[in-house]
What we know:
Layout: E1 2-3, E2 11-12, E3 24-25, E4 29-32, H1 39-46, H2 61-78, E5 82-87, E6 93-100, E7 109-114, H3 123-138, E8 143-148, H4 153-161, E9 165-172, E10 175-183, H5 184-187
Antiparallel strand pairs: 1-2, 3-4, 4-5, 5-6, 6-7, 8-10, 9-10
Helix pairs in contact: 1-2
Amino acid sequence: xxxxxxxxxxxxxxxxxxxxxxxxxxxxxxxxxxxxxxxxxxxxxxxxxxxxxxxxxxxxxxxxxxxxxxxxxxxxxxxxxxxxxxxxxxxxxxxxxxxxxxxxxxxxxxxxxxxxxxxxxxxxxxxxxxxxxxxxxxxxxxxxxxxxxxxxxxxxxxxxxxxxxxxxxxxxxxxxxxxxxxxxxxxxxx
Length: 190
């Protein structure tokens, strides 16, 4: 039975099982499941024009909530997805990193999106390394990709630090993108 008495939306009154999303830890980061209380940090990050510059554009709070639900739901539908990334030192949510492959996509992608205050500190590379390792350890795929706007030199640099190489150019809804890739065999070497 669901209740909507608080005006915040219906919540289950009985315990509803959630998908098990693995918790990953790196030296400086915790990668974990999505929680409703992540909305403030996610909405602030998604409202920043610089963060969204090469993504889908600035999102308002409602759109940010829907994006969170999309990423959380990807875990249910595919068994993998993006993790919320927290800094261990202070528990601050700094972004999302992980794997996804929505219907019609180019393949299983490792992607990252960090709040501007977390840029330039190696967090994207650190978290993406953990995501790639988890992906090759748990998914039946021999290749992971990243879909990157050619003007996004910071993300291209992250992909290169991960050992990815340029696979090919593609079109994403009328926008030119570069498909960076790494295969399982090369990951074990890096």
